[in-house]
Every structure is written in C-alpha cells, then in structure tokens.
C-alpha cells in the first residue's frame, strides 16, 4: 500500500429539503444524536453521530426528491450486529410509514444469510440496514445480482 494506511469511510453528507424532518427521521431510525447544528437562514445543517463518532451530516440545500436515475449516491448502508436489530428498525420505520423497496428482511443473495431492509428517507434517499448473518436463507428478490444492487 501507498501512503493511505488504514483508510476507512468517515461520514456521509446528504442534501435534504427539510432539516427538521430529516433529523427526526434519522434520530428515530438510527438512534443517533445531534452533535452540532447550524440554524442560520439559508445555511441550516446538522451533524449526527453516536458515541462521539460522526456518521451523517445533513445539509438543507435541495429541492424535490432524490434522483435515483442520476449518477451519484446509489444507497447508504448501515450494519448492525443481529437480525433482531434489523427487525427493530423495521418496526420503527413502519411506524413512520416509510417506503420499503422489499417486504421485510431479505437476503443479500440467493439463499444467503446476510440480509436486511431496504427503504427510503423522507427525501427518497435509498438506505439499508443489514446484519452479516441471521437472515432466513431464501430466494433473493433480485435474481442473479446482489439484492442491494438493482432496486
């Protein structure tokens, strides 16, 4: 390796249309806290994280809905330890009337045991919460490709 030792993803920045709505959504679903925020008109933002680690930054500077057909972010994925945690998040999302791309927990591939839920945030940004094992081995919703790839 070259000069970039121990490279890892830091945080993900997302443009949103309604900061208050998005903060409430991400706090409820991911159990994150607001670590910093800006409320100056035209420059509203929030930093969300957990245990001192920044995970997501939200920037209120967009209109409309997330354009899934344009180049850019495909989806944002969060790993948890167990399928029970995935199912707990699913219950919260159902209470928020979130849109799901598939019904319930689905495997990442044919008869795989890793899997999760695929849903969108209030601006249509595609999200995933998954566990590395514990999904019921079953037919994947997308044959011949990873479930998280074409949805």
From TrEMBL:
Pfam families assigned: Glyoxalase
Query: Where does the VOC domain lie?
Result: 8-132
Database matches in SUPFAM superfamilies: Glyoxalase/Bleomycin resistance protein/Dihydroxybiphenyl dioxygenase
Q: Which InterPro entries match?
A: Fosfomycin_Res_Enzymes, Glyas_Bleomycin-R_OHBP_Dase, Glyas_Fos-R_dOase_dom, VOC_core
Q: Which residues form a coiled coil?
A: none
Q: Which CDD domains match?
A: VOC (cd06587)
Q: What is this protein called?
A: VOC domain-containing protein
| Originating species | Embleya hyalina
